[in-house]
Amino acid sequence: MGLQEPLLIGRDDSDDVLEKRRISSDLRFALKTYSPVIYKSASPCTSSMLKSIVLGSNHMNHVICQLSDEWGEPAETFRKKATMILEEMADNLHLSAIRLLAFILSKVFKRVFRRIRVNTEGIERLKKALSDNPVVLLPNHRSYMDFLILSFVFYTYDLNIPVIAARGLLEIKILSTILRRSGAFYIRREIGTNKLYWAVLSEYVKTMLRMGYAPIEFYVEGARSRSFKSLLPKLGLLNIVTDAFLKKEVADVTLVPISITYERPVDETLHAHDLLGLPKIKESMWALFKARKILGQDFGTSSIHLGEPVSLKALVQGDVNLSQYNLDHRYCNLPSQEIKAFLHHTGCRMIHLQEENMVISPFVLVATILMQKLICSISLHRNIVKIDNGKTMLVQEQQADSSTDKHLMQYAVTVLTCSMYRNQILHIFVRPALAAMALSFTNKTQKEEIFICYSFLQDLFSSEFVFLPGNAKQDFEEACHRLSEWGAVQISKQNIELTETGPLVIFFILSIFQPFLEGYQVCCTIYICFLLMFWLILYLIIVWLLIKEKETIKGPESSRLISSKNRTLIKRRVK
């Protein structure tokens, strides 16, 4: 009898998309009749037509003329540069490549995953959303597999394959070509203030929205989270999408937060190496070939939860002054402070919706306990933990005292990998932990005093964890409610008091966040030492300058005294 899959903490209204794949032909699956739901107002458009529309748009002509005037060069020069940028960037979506990728991924996923679970209710909601408005998909980003597994699911359920904002992989020509023909469009890692590049990217995304070309997929966090903790939102692409709505280029845009979780990520060790600052593996066919060893490993279950669609129009109403968007400002791309605040709030909200629907595997709970040096039982992640006399401990833990760099690095990789699993549950504990800290630091029972400390701590950690702006009071109430549910505190109208078991619960919660507290403590210590060193050096420089100035003043006076004495002596000798 094979290993039974552990239950995952999450919703159970889900299908396993690999179940049918294991009993039917992969070739038949790849060549199946594919009739996706498309946007009801979509205009027929190929990738080559899309590029022509982008380059011929009024916005692009305006930017090219503006750059031509600024640099004093012919407009045709910038038009050629824009064409080159678009050729490097644009997708080349083609059904034959999608079928080829579906065939390959079916083979690969059946070998590396036990199951790929998808919530069926989310599929039905998304089908309706795809027909009503242009759709923007906002998945979290934890693995290189994210966009592949999502496209595979979309093909399985006859959903329109999204165009995906991608960075990197251009060095692997064969792979990048297949992915480009499967919907990937490539954005440079560093854009900076390149006005022409931003114009091409903006017009390309907006044209896809206007034409209903395909759903657009990008990561609101902007990059892969190597620590598995949610990152603060990056607002570039979200600003472009919002700008298209505000300037009435589209009637509405539907945002769909998507939560992708892995029982064991395919690239977990790679994440740990990145966090340790080890040299990044260069993207190449040889590196891809060496990665084939993962095909013999078991990565458990992957879960995808398609969240409730959110109307951008509904989000904007009441939060943004729409009267400022008129024809006179249709080419102005710099967002106002009001828009920046709206984008940040929307990005944080999408990340919260992702976190709410994440599936927590049993090992995440085990890893949380393991990181606190407690004893438990486990049998799955043998590359991280091992069983010794019925007890579970971190691999390489006994070699941590070894003097060799190799053993120390192996232990560091193990600890960081285990911490990545623990980080997947931090969003559940972060607010109660801050409330527990406030309760411990203030050593008072008055709710108002504790809230003031909580608000300070939330501001302090706002660069580390994602909080909704202006929502501190509600977060505090939610945190206190959870602490009460866990039996840690008793809450009245004005006071919060610990229960008998409260100290033990508080200790457990705070120990989860101890690494972050220690990290901030180290940073503060280094910062203070740096300031003291700076002021000491500044003091020494001032003292040195004062001494030099005195020497400069005394120099001429002493020389004058000497010369006067010499003249007196000469006169006496002459006499």
Automatic annotation (TrEMBL):
<feature type="domain" description="Phospholipid/glycerol acyltransferase">
    <location>
        <begin position="135"/>
        <end position="263"/>
    </location>
</feature>
<dbReference type="InterPro" id="IPR045520">
    <property type="entry name" value="GPAT/DHAPAT_C"/>
</dbReference>
<dbReference type="GO" id="GO:0016287">
    <property type="term" value="F:glycerone-phosphate O-acyltransferase activity"/>
</dbReference>
<dbReference type="GO" id="GO:0019432">
    <property type="term" value="P:triglyceride biosynthetic process"/>
</dbReference>
<keyword id="KW-1133">Transmembrane helix</keyword>
<protein>
    <submittedName>
        <fullName>Glyceronephosphate O-acyltransferase</fullName>
    </submittedName>
</protein>
<keyword id="KW-0012">Acyltransferase</keyword>
<dbReference type="Pfam" id="PF01553">
    <property type="entry name" value="Acyltransferase"/>
</dbReference>
<dbReference type="GO" id="GO:0004366">
    <property type="term" value="F:glycerol-3-phosphate O-acyltransferase activity"/>
</dbReference>
<dbReference type="InterPro" id="IPR002123">
    <property type="entry name" value="Plipid/glycerol_acylTrfase"/>
</dbReference>
<comment type="pathway">
    <text>Phospholipid metabolism.</text>
</comment>
<dbReference type="GO" id="GO:0031966">
    <property type="term" value="C:mitochondrial membrane"/>
</dbReference>
<dbReference type="GO" id="GO:0012505">
    <property type="term" value="C:endomembrane system"/>
</dbReference>
<dbReference type="GO" id="GO:0008611">
    <property type="term" value="P:ether lipid biosynthetic process"/>
</dbReference>
<keyword id="KW-0812">Transmembrane</keyword>
<dbReference type="InterPro" id="IPR041728">
    <property type="entry name" value="GPAT/DHAPAT_LPLAT"/>
</dbReference>
<dbReference type="InterPro" id="IPR022284">
    <property type="entry name" value="GPAT/DHAPAT"/>
</dbReference>
<keyword id="KW-0472">Membrane</keyword>
<dbReference type="GO" id="GO:0008654">
    <property type="term" value="P:phospholipid biosynthetic process"/>
</dbReference>
<feature type="transmembrane region" description="Helical">
    <location>
        <begin position="525"/>
        <end position="547"/>
    </location>
</feature>
<dbReference type="GO" id="GO:0005778">
    <property type="term" value="C:peroxisomal membrane"/>
</dbReference>
<keyword id="KW-0808">Transferase</keyword>
<dbReference type="GO" id="GO:0006631">
    <property type="term" value="P:fatty acid metabolic process"/>
</dbReference>
<comment type="similarity">
    <text>Belongs to the GPAT/DAPAT family.</text>
</comment>
<dbReference type="Pfam" id="PF19277">
    <property type="entry name" value="GPAT_C"/>
</dbReference>
